[in-house]
Amino acid sequence: MKFVKLILFLLCLNSFSQIKNGRIEYGVTIEMIDGFRGTILEKPYTESMNNARYLNFTLLFDKDNAFFSCDDGLGTINDDVFMSKVTAGYMNEIYQNKDFSLSAVHPIYGQYVLKKEISKDWELVNETKEIEGFLCYKATSTKIVINDKGTFRFPIIAWYCPKIPVSFGPNGYGNLPGLILELQVRNVVYGVKKIDLNLKKTPLLGKPKDYTIITEEEFDKIVKSGKVEENFKRGFVKPVDKF
Q: What percent of the residues of the chain are helix, what percent strand, and what percent coil, each to the nearest 5?
């Protein structure tokens, strides 16, 4: 492990001053969850898997901040790709720095911006592969999901590139000694499609909506409160794809 960290440090030291910003495009693939086969969930989940090919994600970054967003595919309507986004774990545009990310929650939950701390619980693995001509290293972690059915742990695998020494990645992940070019969270894989570095024009990273900022714990309470279901029944909020 010490050897891996030393190599990564030397690579980053050599390339840090060369990369100022960039634009990365990702696609996403979704695989079927075994427990859904033969159930009423299989058909809608299959549709989400198929429509995922229409989704295109963009990560803009400079040395200190990043902005991750989704571009709907041409020839589709919002309903076609909405569930694909949900299945892929994408909630909304994500504004990220090295310590935390900010993202407006879906309108069905209210006007809030969710703040997430960037996980530091990575294990660096001495395993490499080439992605789009860049040498990438493997890192692993675990996603913990707690609900009324128990506590579940799902594997996370990231392939990051030390020669692009920024600690960002798709869908708010990061905190590794290099840009994440491929990310697998359980059965969902974000994979890089195009890499543009040192853009002629400085990327506009914007800022999140001026809503109340809430933590993950506060968001969980909102989800469990039942108010969302009430809003649907009363017709106050409809499940729109963009806002």
A: 25, 40, 35
**Encoding tokens for residue 113?**
């911006």
Measured CA to CA, the distance from residue 179 to residue 170 in angstroms comes to: 9
State pLDDT tens for residues 143-170. Answer: 988 777 788 899 999 999 999 999 999 9
174 phi and psi angles, rounded to 5 deg:
175, -150
Tell me which DSSP letter residue 131 carries.
E
232 half-sphere exposure, CB direction, 13 A CA radius: 8
Start-to-end CA distance of the chain, whole Å, equals 45
Both tokens assigned to 54:
């229409």
CA atoms within a 13 Å half-sphere pointing along the CA-CB vector of 117: 6
Q: Helices 227-234 & 216-224, crossing angle to 10 degrees?
A: 50
Alpha-helix runs per DSSP H in 16-144: 42-51, 78-87
**Greater confidence, 82 or 181?**
181
Residue owning tokens 């001053």? 17
Q: Domain residue spans in the chain?
A: 2-99+128-207
Closest-CA residue to 171 (of 73, 91, 81, 243)? 91
